[in-house]
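Limitations

Structures in this collection are predictions, not experimental determinations, and the ligand pose is part of the prediction. Treat each record accordingly. The example that follows, with iron/sulfur cluster as the small molecule, is included so readers can see exactly what is and is not provided: the inputs are given verbatim, and the output is the predicted complex.
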Amino acid sequence: MMTVTYQVKDSIYVNLTNRCPCSCTFCLRHNGPGVFGSDSLWLEREPALDEVLESLGKWDYGRFREVVFCGYGEPTERLDVLLAAAEHLKKGDPSLRVRVNTNGLSDLINGKPTAKLFSGRVDCLSISLNTDDPAEYLAVCRPKFGEAAYPAMLEFAKEAATVVPDVVMTVVGEPVTSAAKQARCRAIAEGLGARLRVRPYEEGK
Ligand code: SF4
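Predicted complex:
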């Protein structure tokens, strides 16, 4: 059975796609289909908008803290479905918190500026910054867009911070990211109008 929405603690997660323009060395997707058993998040096909809305409709949102678009893929690969589903959720309950976990490469994926489209639809964008070093980003995230990816991700974050209430840029904590590097990443995030979140090493994406 295809898992489109699922519960993680007090949140509902939405799985729109397994596609991603990156191939991060640490990505769980490298484990491939089946590794998570019958509840695998590896989609046999991408759900249509009506399937996403139907799956979202089965939860009682009074019991949950937020809805998170994440999955084992990059949700902005399906930007139209993502925005329509987020809009549907916010129309149904404006107080419901909607977050998108993204690699920040939506502009390159979709071939146009996209950050402003999140306005009013999303409360939090969590963007993987990963590093302050563009060369290291290229080596670790291996984006298909090459050197254009890192600056595009920063630009997306900066634009998003003008319209989305909470823009968070993330790095993995020590030993992956030293305290000095974390400080440099924090300066980058705050310079863009975002905040830095240091994820625990074990936590994954
Ligand atoms: S951006 Fe996320 S989904 Fe894409 S390869 Fe990296 S960790 Fe995996």
